[in-house]
Amino acid sequence: MSDEKLWSLKNRWVTGSIAILLAIGLLAAAVGFIWLPRAHADENLAASLWESICRAAGVPARYDSPPLGAQAGASNVIVTAQMMAPADSAAIGRGATLAMRCTMCHGARGMSPAGSPHLAGQPAAATYKQLRDFKSGHRASAIMAPLMNELSDQDMRDLAAYYAYLPRERMSQETTEAVPRLVRNGDPMRNIGACASCHTVEVLKPASPWLDGLPESYLHQQLTAFRHGERRNDLNGQMRNAARGLTDAEVTALARYYASR
After folding, report:
1. The pLDDT value given to residue 118
2. What's the start-to-end Cα distance of the chain, in Å?
3. How is domain 87-165 classified at the CATH fold level?
4. DSSP single-letter state for residue 192
5. Of 83, 88, 113, 142, which is most buried by a Cβ count within 10 Å?
């Protein structure tokens, strides 16, 4: 048999092989250019079929202004190490006056007896960011949102300065809880970072709250909200990514540990 006849399209083995290769190519293109881009697309960006193909091919997308409101991002606060100027006595005094309306939930000295977060001693940047997020709607709360509507940016800075000035009091006995492995080391295999790398007094990470001594019910509620994607004001999705892999038992253990400190 000659080479011409062997590679002829009349040869059923040649045409069959070409058909199989074309089918594999079409399947690979469908997976790589359509299914994977749509499966991993940002839920806030509804991509059409053509947009999915262009995105997979690396074609630059047309710029659209982000929508206004809470869905524009996790927060509208730019977090830097210098985001809060050193507070003077006048700012702390103004914050003390504003804090009088907060005592019902957060206590007269910033230590809540009712399951709300303790604010006394919290870094000013952490409190300020949460207040801003409540005001903008990036963090949802039927209680906090109406209260924030009346506050200016300076009011929120003064409140944060006042609560940072207050001494942190212990509301529980000395802890006997062993430090959970997730607090010390995290779990790299599940993409869970060590809690202590952000939420420790010594770390001083901008806008990260200290968790020691916070009410167990509050900690459990917030971890669960991050885990299910119900709370979304964490920058770059850090808390959602970490909490997504937690089990119910781990959420309970972490909340109990930090509440006992």
Report:
1. 94
2. 86
3. Cytochrome Bc1 Complex; Chain D, domain 2 (1.10.760)
4. B
5. 83
Q: Is the pTM of this model over 0.90?
A: no
Contact 115, 220 (CB under 8 A): no
In whole angstroms, what is the distance from residue 59 CA to residue 56 CA? 8
Q: What is the pLDDT of residue 123?
A: 94
Which two three-digit tokens encode residue 8? Answer: 């002829």
> Domain residue spans in the chain?
3-57, 87-165, 181-259
Q: Residue by residue, what is the 3-state secondary structure of 127-167?
A: HHHHHHHHHHCCCCCCCHHHHHCCCCHHHHHHHHHHHHHCC
Q: Give residue 184's identity as a one-letter amino acid code.
A: R
- CA 37 – CA 174 distance, rounded (Å): 51
Q: Which pLDDT score is estimated for 1?
A: 47
Hey, which CATH number is domain 181-259, 3.30.530.20, 1.10.760.10, 1.10.357.10, 1.20.1530.20?
1.10.760.10
Contact 160, 125 (CB under 8 A): yes
For residue 197 the two structure tokens come to 């790398």
Amino acid at 59: V
Residue type, 63: Y
Q: Which amino acid is at 252?
A: T
